[in-house]
């Protein structure tokens, strides 16, 4: 599994559905460079079971992400038309109507491959003919990208394991706290708590004030 932290997020241009129903043929994260942080997450497939709980959970925290100047973007290997249909389907029927952030279509699987979250892989026979081995879906990868396009945090869950949106917000807060204050964030840090200077003296001072040795 590739570690993209500290590197430029792989670029792409792909179809997407935005604002819950508008199809855009060439969607790219480059539009946010210098303007917004991005939480870019992959999910296995439309019209499944764990996935809608995650997509609704991200939408439920839309205001919190907006307050932090963060754009949430989802992606799966489904077609843009599948995304559109799912977005028009009522949640009572397993749909995600009400989700407004962009959903990218990665039908060629190139985006998931570039971010190294594709569950399967292509192989070639002796005649050079390609075939796909494994599950043609993505794992639940999530990438926090700063305004310069650098990946600052990533997680990858197996398909049955839903993510914590609260933890994603915590990581956004930690990154922005570090950028604004120049102090690092210790274990279990949450917004509103004090940070720590990245020196031995700073560590000792922090631990002394929190029952450490």
UniProtKB/TrEMBL annotation:
<protein>
    <recommendedName>
        <fullName>Thioredoxin peroxidase</fullName>
    </recommendedName>
</protein>
<feature type="active site" description="Cysteine sulfenic acid (-SOH) intermediate; for peroxidase activity">
    <location>
        <position position="51"/>
    </location>
</feature>
<dbReference type="InterPro" id="IPR024706">
    <property type="entry name" value="Peroxiredoxin_AhpC-typ"/>
</dbReference>
<dbReference type="GO" id="GO:0005829">
    <property type="term" value="C:cytosol"/>
</dbReference>
<keyword id="KW-0560">Oxidoreductase</keyword>
<keyword id="KW-0963">Cytoplasm</keyword>
<dbReference type="InterPro" id="IPR050217">
    <property type="entry name" value="Peroxiredoxin"/>
</dbReference>
<keyword id="KW-0676">Redox-active center</keyword>
<dbReference type="GO" id="GO:0042744">
    <property type="term" value="P:hydrogen peroxide catabolic process"/>
</dbReference>
<dbReference type="InterPro" id="IPR000866">
    <property type="entry name" value="AhpC/TSA"/>
</dbReference>
<dbReference type="InterPro" id="IPR036249">
    <property type="entry name" value="Thioredoxin-like_sf"/>
</dbReference>
<feature type="domain" description="Thioredoxin">
    <location>
        <begin position="3"/>
        <end position="177"/>
    </location>
</feature>
<dbReference type="Pfam" id="PF00578">
    <property type="entry name" value="AhpC-TSA"/>
</dbReference>
<keyword id="KW-0575">Peroxidase</keyword>
<keyword id="KW-1015">Disulfide bond</keyword>
<comment type="function">
    <text>Thiol-specific peroxidase that catalyzes the reduction of hydrogen peroxide and organic hydroperoxides to water and alcohols, respectively. Plays a role in cell protection against oxidative stress by detoxifying peroxides.</text>
</comment>
<dbReference type="GO" id="GO:0008379">
    <property type="term" value="F:thioredoxin peroxidase activity"/>
</dbReference>
<dbReference type="InterPro" id="IPR019479">
    <property type="entry name" value="Peroxiredoxin_C"/>
</dbReference>
<dbReference type="GO" id="GO:0045454">
    <property type="term" value="P:cell redox homeostasis"/>
</dbReference>
<dbReference type="InterPro" id="IPR013766">
    <property type="entry name" value="Thioredoxin_domain"/>
</dbReference>
<comment type="similarity">
    <text>Belongs to the peroxiredoxin family. AhpC/Prx1 subfamily.</text>
</comment>
<dbReference type="GO" id="GO:0033554">
    <property type="term" value="P:cellular response to stress"/>
</dbReference>
<dbReference type="Pfam" id="PF10417">
    <property type="entry name" value="1-cysPrx_C"/>
</dbReference>
<dbReference type="GO" id="GO:0006979">
    <property type="term" value="P:response to oxidative stress"/>
</dbReference>
